[in-house]
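Database export, one record per block. Field names are fixed; values are copied verbatim from the stored entry.
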Amino acid sequence: MGATSPAPVARAARTIRRLPATLLGGLLAVRFIDEGFGFLPSGAIEQIRADLDIGYTAMSLVLAAPYAGSLPALWLTARSDRTGRRSIVLVGTALMALSLIGFAVATLTAVAVAAAILWGFGGSLMVHGAELEFALVGDDAPAGELKRRLRVCNLWGTVGDVLGPLLLGAILAVGWSWRVSFWTGAAVTLAYLLWLVRYEFSPARAEPEDDDAPAWRDPTAWRLGAFAFLLMPFDETWLAFLIAWLQVDGGWTGSAAAVAGVVAVLGAALGFGPVAARVANRSDRALLVAVASVLAVAGAVVAGVPPVLAVAAGFVVNAATAVGWVTLQHAALTLRPGAEGRVMSLIVAIEHTTVVLPVALGAAADRFGLAWVFGSYAGLGIVAAAVATTIGGGRRPA
């Protein structure tokens, strides 16, 4: 330890060398497509509204439609434990490309909504199927390999978070239509599909002989889902409220407050990178308790400190949230070997219900002010810490 610990850069380089090139490529591609091009409907909201001549209500339907599409995909993801991942990943990626094309050619609101539903369905199959395939393949991997793969996968997602807005911004800056960004996304996704067609997927894994109970009856899976439910509002919703507070209560301009978005990406990169690597040997339960505790403290103090310190708190929140997601994924994927798809589908289904929390927080902000919202975030962190104390570890070293 101590003086002999390798530098984070050297550790990251060793991680990449340990991963077979195909697995690394699959992880990088799926996360980049998911995060980079997943930004486009939200990032081009004003351009899409103007082009389709629709209001915010109709545009909200477009932005909410992917959730409706993703729900039936969870059932197919769960079945992939028995049928293998190949079919859902290939079909999902093809549908993801088709949805991007649908956005690119949409001239009616109904077409955009249909493309968004297809986006949610295909994207869910592509992302969850590919992550299960590339993260779990190779049972003979050394202990800790799964967490390393999850860190690389999620870290590349933050690259997509940066490059997606940059791509859209560059396209709009040169005077091209927002539709060009969707055509670009479709081309990249189709290229990924061609690579997947030639990839040799692992066969379906046998059911564990000593575990006949269905995943939905596992109390730990429900607790992990509850933690995901409480963690989800600390992503984009937290950032949105922080940016609003910097302008309304902190007196910052819109452009100055936007720096919080950059800080968020940097915090997530730190969390998925060196921080998650340094704490990788801790138990999942201990890490989740620590993450929730940090989030509770940050929520409690952010509205009572100067704006610069509030931005610093946002940085810490995103770093902690990143560690939380990696740890949550690891706990879920090691809970029931052979039933990873079913466990993840249950957790994601519970997580999706978190849409009620941002609505409740927004109503609270209208009635009581933004400072009250961050007090609510402190409460979410406290509840998440309590939930985390009840979560047991996985059944195998990974």
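Remark 1: The first helix runs from residue 8 to 18.
Remark 2: The chain is about 75% helix and 0% strand.
End of record.
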